[in-house]
Amino acid sequence: MEPVVIVGSGLAGLTAAWALAPAPCILITTGCLTGGAASMWAQGGVAAALGAGDRPELHARDTFVAGARYGDRQVIDRITSAAPEVVRELARLGVPFDRTPSGDFDLALEGGHGRHRVAHAGDHSGATITSVMSARVAGLPSVTVREFSTAVALTTYGGRISGVDVRDEHTGMVQHLSTDRVVLATGGLGGLFAHTTNPVTATGRGVALAARIGARTDDLHLVQFHPTALDVGADPMPLLTEALRGAGAALLADGRRFVDELQPRDVVAAAVWEQLTAGRRVVLDARHIHQLTERFPSVTALAAGHGVDIRTDLLPVRPALHFSMGGITTDADARTSLPGLWAVGECSRTGLHGANRLASNSLLEAVVTGKAAAASAATFDDTWPAYAGADPDSVVAATDSTDDPTVLAIVRATLDTHCGVLRDGEGLQRAIDELAPYAATSDAAYVGWLIARSALAHPDSAGAHRRTDEPVMAATA
């Protein structure tokens, strides 16, 4: 049997490669291992019901409520139930989670959570966890890592995956890898927006690869805006972690507090946006937090790099695209609608996040889906029926899958203007019309076009998707 090909080296892709061992796999990554992975940027941690008095059912309830009651209850129950063991397993693999003097996990409180339940490694948990998993994968003889390589197209035969076309970023040459099993772990699409906390390379490539060969996608309009990106003119925007507000940082508009900072992100982001559009200056005040720089060294360094001292300065903030809840539709085994194709992590749509991701559920999802895909791919055979909607023999690729900088700039400006914190039908139709001419030749424009189409097709507001022309919102505007 041919090796599994995994596209992407963030936490989800690394977990899949690790869990597949000793079965062979080829891991494709556009840079060096973990390079450009949003997992490396995650500041919060892994949410899990590990504290006294906490239970997975409570974690599930908070996840469902934060997701605007839009998530899949079975998926939520399954993943939150797995969460405590995920944290323990990561600890056994060598992740140095912060501990209390008694040796228990030091659990943080974040927005939307009713309990302290976020296991963390300082304020750089994503980098720590991903680096530990990367070291594990790099030492596996079963894993062949192809760095500086980009998957530009998937191929199918008889309605099933038949291979991947991979471009060498040094030579520009494209090679076809024959395989009947591909795991997409390409991350999110936040780089398609002009204001984002994501790597600017996060342009939804996995969604483009899958959708161009007929794989089902859902909820692409559901994108989360983090309410507290540091507004200092940087691209991407530095993230001020949720944990700052959990520790007591306050949001102020022209000096006055205007929102409960520990509400779910969609609520806080909308409140911040309302203040900004009214012409007020919005800042995060973290100056009074005890042992601020000791507890948040990464944020301290990040802010200092932009000339801001979190000990003495008020921190200017604005919402920025942070996470995509929608994506390539998957089942409990991370399988997509096409036989031989799995999707894990942020490029997938599992149903966990509903219409708004609960803080620190993304790293959890990455590990759970990565393991699920590995288990399923290891036992894959021809009994999985072909997807009826797939072409019998196809390869569909953008003519410019590198995404021309000029086109990408158009996509980012268009989505930022028309698909931001607040949307309406007229603006969404304008976005569709502006992006349509580029969709056939640019993956970035194609995914942006899909996002706008999905948003226009959903006239009712839900979580992070807020339509100002919805009857309820229009009546209260």
Automatic annotation (TrEMBL):
The lineage of its organism: Bacteria, Bacillati, Actinomycetota, Actinomycetes, Micrococcales. InterPro entries: FAD-dep_OxRdtase_2_FAD-bd, FAD/NAD-bd_sf, Fum_R/Succ_DH_flav-like_C_sf, NadB, Succ_DH/fumarate_Rdtase_cat_sf. It comes from Branchiibius cervicis. Pfam families: FAD_binding_2 (PF00890). Its cofactor is FAD. Keywords: FAD, Flavoprotein, Oxidoreductase, Pyridine nucleotide biosynthesis. Its EC number is 1.4.3.16. It is an enzyme of class 1 (oxidoreductase). Belongs to the FAD-dependent oxidoreductase 2 family. NadB subfamily. This is L-aspartate oxidase. Catalyzes the oxidation of L-aspartate to iminoaspartate, the first step in the de novo biosynthesis of NAD(+). Residues 4-363 form the FAD-dependent oxidoreductase 2 FAD-binding domain. SUPFAM superfamilies: FAD/NAD(P)-binding domain, Succinate dehydrogenase/fumarate reductase flavoprotein C-terminal domain, Succinate dehydrogenase/fumarate reductase flavoprotein, catalytic domain. Pathway: Cofactor biosynthesis; NAD(+) biosynthesis; iminoaspartate from L-aspartate (oxidase route): step 1/1. It catalyses: L-aspartate + O2 = iminosuccinate + H2O2.
